[in-house]
Amino acid sequence: MTSRTLVLNAIQSFLDGTRPTAFRDSKFWFVLGPNGEMLPAKAIWSLVTGIRGADFNTKDAVNGLSSLEFSVIDIRHSRPATSLDDAVVSSLKLPASERQNRLANAPKTPAKVLVVSEQFVRNPDVVAEVLLRAGKHCERCGSLAPFSRRRDGSPYLEVHHKRPLSKGGDDTVENAVALCPNCHRFEHHG
Fold first, then answer.
1. Where are the domains positioned within the chain?
2. At CA 4, angle to CA 121 and CA 32, rounded to 5?
3. How far apart are CA 119 and CA 173, in angstroms?
4. Residues 27-55 pLDDT 10s
5. What residue stretches are annotated with the HNH nuclease domain (predicted)?
6. How many CB atoms lie within 10 A of CB 3?
7. pLDDT digits (tens, 9 = 90+) for 121-138
8. Continuous segment of H or E residues that includes residue 74
C-alpha cells in the first residue's frame, strides 16, 4: 500500500469515528480531506504512522502530509470573512475627503485570502425538474429568461430554495423555484 493510500485510509477511519491514542482536538493545523473536510493534521498523521501524538511534533505531521501532496492549512493565518456589502455601506457613510484619502493610499492589487467553507451537495435532479417546470419564465415575476446559456442554449434561470438549506430547508422540487437573476437577488437582498 502506498503512503498516500495509508493517509486516505487514515482519513476515512477518522471520518468513521476512529481517534488515535491520547487524541486532543487540533487548534491550528488541518489537512484537507478528499471532499474538502478540515481534519486535524496531527491526528491523521498519528493514525498513519501508529505513533502517539505526544511522541512527535506537529511539524512532523505537516511535513509528512505535505510531502504526500495533501493540502495542509494553518488556520492562524486565515482571517474571518468580511462582507463586501457591509464594507461598502461603511464607506458610503464616510466623508468624501476621507474616502478619497483612503483610495489614494490603498494598494492597487487586492490581497488574496484562502477561504474554506462548507457547501451543500445539491441534487441535480431537483434543479433539472424545477428548470423544466419553469420553462423559459421566472416563477416569481413571469419574465422571460434574460438570456440563453452558452453551453447548451437553455434559458438562464437560477434555482432558489424557498426555505434555505442553511435554515433546514429540503432540497426538493417543492421547496425550489426557478428565478431570473434579478428576482433571485431580490429574494436574498430585497
1. 3-77, 124-189
2. 35
3. 19
4. 889 998 888 888 999 999 999 999 988 88
5. 126-185
6. 13
7. 999 999 999 999 999 999
8. strand 72-74
